[in-house]
Amino acid sequence: MNLFRPRMSPIYYSARPVCSVLLFLFTRWRVIGRDNIPRRGPVIVVSNHLNNADPPLVAAAVWPREISFMAKEELFRDPVSRFFVCAFGAFPVSRGKFDREAFRKAGEVLEKGMLLGLFPEGSRSKTGGLQAAMPGPALIARHFKRPILPVAIYGSEEIGGSLWFLKRPRVTINIGPAFELPAPVGPSRDDLRSATDIIMRRIAGLLPERYHGIYGNGTPGEVGAGTMFHAPTAPHQR
Questions:
Q1: Does residue 233 or residue 206 have the better pLDDT?
Q2: Strands 148-154 and 91-93
Q3: The pLDDT of residue 161 is above 90
């Protein structure tokens, strides 16, 4: 069996401080709520997604905690992108179905006492507003019974294009208090939908109103149809 052992390469430890320096030079970035990051123990970090730069932004914000991201499998097909995502301890997940291997690897990251980074929306928001989230993060939190740390990013959508760095866009990473999902109520499918809504509303509460998307104005949230984990229930404990 090919066991996944979350282990960060030297590139990981050198890239995070370099990323912080680049952010300081080319953006006006700030981190709010750093004191909310648990100092130790496994935690599931969930964030909205606006830009490909979001994973290193989150990694720099939670320093010195180690974080391993669940990343879409497409990033592992190109040798160059695969090198960088693997250097950051990331592992692939197949979207649109229940990926048992990714689920197992997520458990191993948490078992090691690390932070597990997830983007519930599954893809970058083209409008900036929150999109329908996938139930994968809720499924992981339910199965492994770990706390969740909500993170909101805004302003990173301005990173990109020609000479963007001359504008020094204002980028904010807002970290909320860690929380645990309430006890399950009702059928598994309904519970995952409710748990996903709770997670996304925690993120929405850390964002300016214009980023709330479908989780704004008190409207009921949605769960994405093309889910990261399509299975309606968690697998049995072994």
A1: 206
A2: unpaired
A3: no
CA-to-CA distance for 226 and 133, rounded, in angstroms? 10
DSSP H/E element including 108: helix 100-111
The domain covering 10-157+165-215 belongs, at the CATH homologous superfamily level, to Glycerol-3-phosphate (1)-acyltransferase (3.40.1130.10)
- Measured between alpha carbons, how far is 12 from 16 in angstroms, rounded to an integer? 6
List residues bridging with 171 in a β-sheet: 29
Q: Which value, to the nearest 10 degrees, does the dihedral of the CA atoms of residues 64, 59, 24, 34 take?
A: -60
Tokens 């458990």 correspond to what residue? 107
Cα–Cα nearest to 29, from 52, 61, 5, 72: 61
The helix (H) or strand (E) run that includes residue 93 is: strand 91-93
Give the burial string for 71-82 (b: 16+ CB within 10 Å, else e). Answer: bbeebbeeeeee
Dihedral pair phi/psi, residue 203, rounded to 5°? -65, -45
pLDDT at 230 over 60: no
pTM summary value? 0.83
- Do residues 28 and 169 touch, judged by C-beta distance below 8 A? yes
